[in-house]
Amino acid sequence: EGQLVQSGGGLVETGGSLRLSCAASMPDFNGYMIGWFRQVPGNEREVVCYVSTDGRATYVEDSVKGRFTVSRDNAKRTVYLQMDNLNPDDTAVYYCAARWQQHGWVTVPPGRYNILDYWGKGSLVNVSS
What is the DSSP code (8-state) at residue 21? Predict the structure, then answer.
């Protein structure tokens, strides 16, 4: 059984930066694509970005494009979400999730998050104005 352990997050002022980490326990981590999602209480969970199994391909939502960067270090079984120029609209609980893909990545439509195999427990990001 795999686990995703998240770290990072916290309180930051508008314009500040934070980095989230997601450490995986699966020995075949290289075959998992990773997605980052966020959720504001009362709202639907939404995708932030994806990174492919080898880290060479990424997808970033328009709302965070140019400010958020996703990367992974397969040797460390860890994925990172670097968040720069944060604003209050970024305030949410952020989750990493993994799906066995072997190679590449796929988009995960809203309502189909059940196809993701593992989820982290979430990291609160609070951006003050």
Answer: E
Q: β-strand 123-128 against 92-100: which pairing, if any?
A: antiparallel
Tell which phi-psi region holds residue 111, choosing left (phi > 0), alpha (psi between -120 and 50) or beta.
left
Q: In this predicted structure, what is the pLDDT of residue 117?
A: 96
Residues 85 and 53: their CA atoms lie apart, in Å, by: 27
Q: Give pLDDT tens digits for 14-27.
A: 999 999 999 999 99
10 exposure class (CB count in 10 Å sphere: 0-12, 13-18, 19+): exposed
d(Cα 84, Cα 60) in Å, to the nearest integer?
14
| Length of the chain as a residue count | 129
